[in-house]
Amino acid sequence: MYLPQTETELAEVIRDADAPLAISGGGTRGVTCEGVTLGTAGMSGITLYEPGAMTVVAQAGTPVAEIEAALATENQRLAFEPMDHRRLLGTEGEPTIGGVMAANISGPRRISVGAARDFLLGVRYVDGAGAIVKNGGRVMKNVTGYDLVKLMSGAYGTLGVLSEVSLKVLPCPETSATLILEGLTEVQGIAALAKALGSPFEITGAAHDPDKRQTLLRIEGFEPSVRYRMEALQKLLGGENHVVQEAGILWAGWRDVAGFAAVDEDIWRVSCKPSDGPALAAKSGALGVRYDWAGGLIWLRMPAGHDLREALGRYDGHATLIRGKDQQRFEPEATGVARLTAGLRERFDPRNLLNRGLMG
């Protein structure tokens, strides 16, 4: 295993490599690839934090918990609410900020603030040739012509190994409240979520649990505003409901898919149009279903080895295997997209060293 302590050492490892490298941050997401492990945890530490500018810069191996603790001292946070996979996957270690950004890990608040990559201001990384590259900066402006910042987020280390990231952070809200609607079917629940998101009440979490027949809607902000919007939302949606204040533990469970943690079956993550969710879940043959992002994200508990993609057929979206064996992790790319992807990999990793075979 390689564990470089500096960006220069990282570049030397990649430049001198003559066999595939399996990139690892904290090792919490269960991603395995061919080759010798190249860990980034040795490159750790917050290099700049400017609360007034709502900007933090950290080395890729910095634990997410360390960043969150530093932000909390200034009443700030990572607004995109990154998922912690350890409970669902039974993994150990510490999630790192480089791993979060490389995989574009976003939680329930994505529906209101955007994805993890939307908070990424700049990156430093080492490409497959061992060259150190910097793109972006500490402000939301990019005039280089190539948005490598967005390209690196979601590439899972296949185009380059992150060494440092610059992030925009946001203030923590004064308070939050969660409306729980009782007794709705999947179709009714998704319709209620859509109605709430179409309202002016600034929903920051929208989920549905078919097993409990509970539909959850979160509102955050200043206390008088939250109270007013919550009362208006209750009137808008009606039905049997109650309000829970400061339901942080509840939403952390949704973020981390805690309801599927103690099972042995395969776990799939499906992105789709929210209105398609119930029909796709019905076709899937799932043993358990959870809806997030107002139905645009479906978590499915499937029988081991079940070919979910074949069961779903063609639809507007994609399925990712989060836990399971002997199946392709990511959705196969269409011919045109695959051609573009191959061209990017040829440019960024000409020797095909980085996380070989992970994304097709």
UniProtKB/TrEMBL annotation:
The keyword Methyltransferase does not apply. The keyword Flavoprotein applies. It comes from Sulfitobacter undariae. GO terms for molecular function: catalytic activity; FAD binding. This is Glycolate oxidase FAD binding subunit. It comes from the Bacteria. Residues 1-172 form the FAD-binding PCMH-type domain. Keywords: FAD, Flavoprotein. Coiled coil: none annotated. Transmembrane segments: none annotated. Signal peptide: none annotated. PANTHER family: D-LACTATE DEHYDROGENASE, GLYCOLATE OXIDASE SUBUNIT GLCE.
